[in-house]
TrEMBL record, chain A:
It comes from the Bacteria. The lineage of its organism: Bacteria, Pseudomonadati, Pseudomonadota, Gammaproteobacteria, Alteromonadales. PANTHER family: RHAMNOSYLTRANSFERASE WBBL. This is Glycosyltransferase 2-like domain-containing protein. SUPFAM superfamilies: Nucleotide-diphospho-sugar transferases. Pfam families: Glycos_transf_2. Residues 299-425 form the Glycosyltransferase 2-like domain.
From TrEMBL, chain B:
Residues 220-373 form the Glycosyl transferase family domain. The lineage of its organism: Bacteria, Pseudomonadati, Pseudomonadota, Gammaproteobacteria, Alteromonadales. One of its GO terms (biological process) is carbohydrate derivative metabolic process. Keywords: Glycosyltransferase, Transferase. This is Glycosyl transferase. SUPFAM superfamilies: UDP-Glycosyltransferase/glycogen phosphorylase. It holds the Pfam family Glyco_transf_4. Residues 17-210 form the Glycosyltransferase subfamily 4-like N-terminal domain.
């Protein structure tokens, strides 16, 4: 077989490589930076355009790329394109004007991320026309043991009822639990404006009666004016496969910023928790470096996701200072994609730094909360220090101060004053806030973010503070475990820290911030509410909905106190 | 006998950078003064049988490479932490004198500290590489404007693909690695101050000039009774930072009668390797000045005396700060006054000491300085004032002696 393949290759020749290569795409303070190169004889110029095909203003800088010639024998031109734009990366395309007059377009993705899945909608083909002249299509379903999520469109004037799902033999396998209807621009663009084409989109959450697998032959049925409508489902995906792609399928079309759609979070939340089930466990491979302290003063848990180079900086820092020698350091590698590189860097740092540490490699991505929970299971000290990978201490005394505060019986969580690299406030305690686009929900705010410390009304000392970011916590292991650690119902890291803060308050503990303990928190922009891809943003919204359902009264009174 | 191990990022016979030459000169001097010295030079070349070491004459060649230029790191750590460590433990020096970490990795310091906990580590700074990602130039990447301070946000402006936070981490990492150094040497006060402001310990910083091999001054060029001192020379790489374009532009601004009496020899190479815009500008200026400018090309160290003998003045019009360019020391040693930009190391070494300075990057200001320089009285004034600082040798030895006595005092 191998021989046949190589023969075919010989005859056909290797597929010609693209004349354009993108090396890195990164976010800047005002937009994006795209670095790459092209074969000088294959491409005339490169540009960036938006979703409407309009050129985006870019600053171009040439980069000498003698290495391209050395490696390929063809001359290469390197480029750096710097664009200032408010648009999301998924709206931009890199366009190469080729020497042969054609164009090549590329989607762009930040390092370590896959390019966002193209919206499942877009190419509208009606695969049914019922006797009544109604058009529609059912594009996909995501199936799980408890729920099935179904997406499609129907020109029924929103009058269809009695939705159900039947299998190939005609048996009903699921009944509707919740439904939302929404505007499908692509349908209007294809078929024109008319009342029948308003809100043709549907998203259905269905309760499973009989379990079905992926690739099942499923048909969505509904009743319209006493006529039966049957929509065969084009693709059936299993929720347990590739969570991120399924989350994109589930959430990329949800217009959560529209109040009517926001109130339909119940269509999406249950399926999201099927995609990321709380009880799903990851297998852990532990690798120890150096001689671990026998009775550590505290166990520091640091999840790594996406970027692993932070390990270099932190271990260099800790290794240089004696007070970390009796701290157990546990890096939880919550990202199989970086496991190999993280291990390689860890081996290098074992040479460079005298700091003992361990890696806990997880078999798959479980998200921030669970990664910390797994770290806590491996911690041998009675006190946990939860530290983000993009944290670097500023003052050496933060450790003693936080450990001193957390040692008090009545204290639950101890947080710290966190700073950006320009010494302005990143976190000085959190508080609930409203966001106009999401009425009725309270989010976690970082008041006075970006302020100079000297402008903070709070002195650099210990103070009670209800909500603290888990970017840097000290907490007793018994307290952490008493409330079950971070709640995995919050998917991929949002609100689980404030949730745990409130649970400890409920237990009668008080949370405090040490504003005299300073650390840098080089907060990644991808963690912000405005992040590339609507799906990621919508996960945050679904987490917010859950958080608010649980703590509505507490949050409301905290918020009233704040705005008073 | 006290032992000193030198580590350089290149062997000066293979790579002629300022740092390699400076370390070599100090090594040669100390050997001459009776110190037991070992010179270890990093090389790119493949070694026999994949060994970490080979030799060139009496010097050790270390075969390794740097892999990560953002953090100036190497992932080839066995050559440093195992192989170099073993060799150094065997040689057991009292002082390790490091003249660069580039091409080996900033982890070099930790490797030596772990191998030799009681040995003193001395590190000579030669440029701003740790402070400035832009090849240590402290010049903005796009605009080539002078940079006065490396802040995380400004560095991000030059290198947008790295966030401001990344630059904070980079700095912290480099400071961590520098913490293994006992004493820093800077050949100029200017560079020393920049590094102290950036975060190095002022107590550990020593300003000591690079040493040169002993060579005597060359008599001034013979001129006729009414002759002018109009023979200028430029020594160095032809690249945007060395400012040859400013010098050529200045020549185009000279009054015709002066221009008829001057001549510039350019002793340098690599114009063909420069960015197109710069190359075209220099080529155009050369075409406009071919009546009085010759491109003489690169030169070997042995050719320097004869080439410098031909000129009256050495011009150093760099648009970046420079540290202590060896060409300044050499010009002074050979008895030739200088005309230099009034910034950084050039200002420090030339102003009121060795010749004329001009407003950096200003062709008009340089043209005025050239006119002034042609006056034989001006030449004579500065030529007579030149005095090479022989203290540098003594200061280097005094620092070593003080480190040796520290070591004896602590009983190691």
């Amino acid at each position: 077989m191998k021989k046949v393949k190589s023969l075919v290759k010989k005859i056909l020749g290797r597929p010609e490589r693209s004349p354009l290569t993108v090396d890195t795409v990164s976010q800047t303070t005002g937009g994006y930076c795209v670095i790459g190169w092209y074969f000088t004889d294959g491409v005339k110029s490169v540009a960036i355009e938006d979703e409407n095909g309009n050129a985006v203003d870019v600053k171009r800088s040439p980069i000498p790329r003698d290495d391209v010639k050395a490696a390929t024998g063809r001359g290469g031109t390197g480029f750096q394109l710097l664009c200032n734009t408010d648009k999301e990366l998924s709206q931009l395309k890199l366009v190469a004007h080729l020497s042969n007059g054609r164009q090549e377009k590329r989607s762009l993705a930040l390092q370590g991320q896959d390019p966002g899945l193209e919206s499942e909608t877009g190419n509208v083909a009606s695969n049914i026309v019922t006797q009544t002249g109604v058009k529609g299509s059912c594009e996909y379903a995501i199936v799980s043991p408890n729920f099935i999520f179904v997406s499609g469109w129907l020109t029924d004037g929103q009058n269809a009822t009695d939705w159900s799902l039947v299998d190939g033999r005609g048996f009903v396998v699921a009944d509707v639990e919740d439904i939302t209807r929404y505007h499908r621009r692509d349908v209007v663009e294809t078929y024109g404006e008319s009342d029948m084409f308003k809100h043709t989109g549907f998203a259905l959450l269905m309760k499973v009666d009989t379990r079905v697998g992926k690739n099942s032959n499923l048909t969505l049925c509904a009743t319209l004016n006493e006529n039966s409508i049957k929509l065969p489902i084009e693709h059936v995906y299993a929720a347990s496969d590739d969570p991120m792609t399924n989350a994109m399928r589930l959430l990329n079309n949800w217009q959560s910023h529209v109040p009517k759609q926001l109130s339909k979070a119940s269509v999406f939340g249950p399926m999201l928790r099927e995609i990321y089930p709380g009880d799903k466990t990851a297998s852990v491979t532990r690798i120890d470096f150096g001689q671990a302290p026998e009775c550590p003063r505290a166990s520091m848990i640091i999840p790594l996701y996406g970027r692993y180079d932070f390990l270099r900086y932190q271990l260099s820092y800790f290794g240089r200072r004696p007070q970390y020698q009796d701290i157990e350091i546990l890096y939880v590698i919550d990202d199989p994609k970086i496991a190999g590189n993280a291990l390689k860097l860890a081996r290098e740092m074992e040479y460079v730094s005298q700091q003992p540490f361990s890696l806990l490699q997880l078999s798959h991505n479980v998200g921030f909360g669970k990664a910390n929970n797994i770290g806590a299971e491996h911690a041998t000290a009675d006190t946990l220090l939860l530290v983000n990978s993009d944290i670097l201490p500023k003052s050496d005394d933060w450790l003693d101060k936080m450990l001193e505060s957390v040692s008090r019986e009545d204290t639950g969580i101890v947080g710290a004053r966190l700073l950006f690299e320009d010494d302005t406030l990143q976190h000085d305690g959190m508080a609930p806030m409203t966001i106009t686009e999401y009425p009725g929900l309270l989010f976690n705010d970082h008041p006075r973010k970006g302020w100079m410390k000297s402008l903070s009304p709070f002195p650099a000392e210990e103070a009670e503070c209800e909500l603290l970011t888990a970017a840097c916590w000290a907490v007793k292991k018994t307290d952490f475990n008493a409330v079950g650690g971070f709640d995995s119902a919050y998917v991929l890291g949002d609100f689980e820290d404030s949730d745990l803060c409130l649970k400890l308050l409920e237990q009668g503990k008080k949370n405090v911030i040490r504003r005299d303990a300073e650390l840098y928190h080089l907060e990644r922009q991808s963690q912000n509410l405005v992040s590339p891809g609507r799906w990621k943003h919508n996960i945050t919204i679904l987490n917010a909905v859950l958080f608010n359902e649980r703590w509505k009264d507490t949050l409301q009174s905290m918020h009233e106190e704040r705005v008073k | 006998m006290k032992k000193v191990a030198f580590i350089s990022h290149g062997h000066p016979e293979l790579s002629k950078g300022g740092a390699e030459v400076a370390s070599w000169n100090l090594y040669t001097l100390l050997k001459h003064k009776g110190f037991d010295c070992l010179y270890i030079a990093r090389t790119d070349a493949k070694s026999h049988g994949g060994s970490t070491f080979s030799s060139r004459g009496n010097e050790v060649l270390l075969h390794t490479a740097m892999t990560e230029w953002f953090t100036l790191s190497s992932s080839h750590l066995k050559p440093l932490f195992v192989d170099l460590a073993e060799l150094l433990r065997e040689y057991s020096p009292d002082v390790v004198h490091i003249h660069h970490y580039a091409h080996m990795g900033i982890e070099l310091f930790a490797a030596i500290r772990q191998a030799l906990p009681d040995t003193k580590i001395v590190f000579t700074l030669h440029e701003f590489m740790a402070m400035c990602m832009h090849n240590g130039q402290m010049v903005k990447r796009e605009t080539l404007k002078l940079c006065y301070k490396a802040t995380a946000n400004d560095c991000h402006q030059c290198f947008p693909s790295n966030s401001p936070g990344d630059f904070l981490l980079r700095k912290q990492y480099l400071l961590d690695q520098f913490s293994h150094v006992d004493e820093f040497i800077s050949p100029s006060h200017f560079l020393a101050k920049r590094y102290v402001d950036w975060g190095l310990d002022v107590e550990k910083m020593h300003v000591i000039e690079n040493v040169l091999p002993p060579r005597s001054a060359i008599e001034p060029r013979q001129i006729s009774e009414n002759g002018k001192r109009g023979k200028f020379a430029f020594f160095g790489q032809i690249n945007p930072y060395k400012g040859l374009d400013i010098l050529l532009h200045a020549i185009t601004l000279l009054p015709p009668d002066i221009r008829a009496q001057i001549h510039l020899d350019v002793h340098g190479a690599n114009l063909d390797k420069q960015p197109a815009e710069f190359r075209e500008r220099v080529e155009s200026l050369l075409a406009q000045t071919k009546d009085c400018v010759d491109i003489r090309g690169p030169y070997e160290a042995e050719q320097l005396p004869s080439r410098i003998a031909e000129c009256d003045w050495v011009v150093i019009p760099s648009i970046w700060w420079e540290n202590s360019p060896v060409v300044i020391q050499e010009a002074m040693q050979f008895g030739r006054p200088l005309i230099g930009s009034n910034i950084g190391g050039m200002k420090e070494k030339i102003e009121n000491k060795a010749g004329l300075t001009f407003e950096a990057r200003s062709a008009a200001s340089l043209a005025a300085a050239l006119v002034k320089a042609t006056d034989p009285d001006v030449f004579e004034h500065w030529q007579e004032k030149l005095a090479i600082n022989h203290n540098a040798e003594n200061e280097h030895i005094a620092l070593l002696e003080s480190l040796f006595s520290d070591i004896s005092a602590t009983g190691s």
